[in-house]
Amino acid sequence: MLDFIDKFIERRRMEREGQLGTRKRRTESVFGAAMDRSTGFILGLVIILWAVCVTVLTIPGTREYPQLVKDQRAPETIYARTDFVYEDKAQTALLREEAVAKLPQATFSIADDRTTDIHQNNIKLLFDAMEKRSKSMAAGEKQPDVQNMIDGRVAALSPVAFKYLYDKQQYRQKSFLNELKIALDDGIISDDLADRLEPDTLVEVLNSSGFRRITTSGKLNTGKQVHPN
Question: Which of 99, 117, 142, 150 is the most buried (most CB within 10 A)?
């Protein structure tokens, strides 16, 4: 379109200067005169042409969808004119509940001072028992029941450690102390607290080193486990 207008203007200029055609026009139209003498008129035509093109291109995109019904599937894909953010509140609430369910419901801190006391006391009881047993063996006495000789609470901290008391002295001492350390490092909770927690309740166990462990309450040591009747 612009090329046609340029050619038309150039042809009119050449006619005025006598470079094109030899016969003078008898009459001159108002439109032709305006094209020859006014650049604003040409600019107006260009603007009008641009407005028409824009209108033709945008009208299809502004159509409405009067038949749309809430919660029903649209007959075709509808594109938004602008970017937007949509929050699915139901899905958000579900994800929030799932995230909360994965959080520990209780936090326990291992008491290092109590752990140290238990460890030292049991070491002393262990060696006292071994010393008593060695003396009775040297005197030729009948060996007493080891379970009666050692406080049942000590031996019961680890069932595996208890049977090692019948093995060689150095080996059973090391094994017993290792099992005792494992039980203490895992942590021990009271029977009352264990009864109030569901076995699958998520709990957090912290030690003095800042180590954080997530487990279930059913996997924690309890008083019943370490002090069976």
Answer: 150
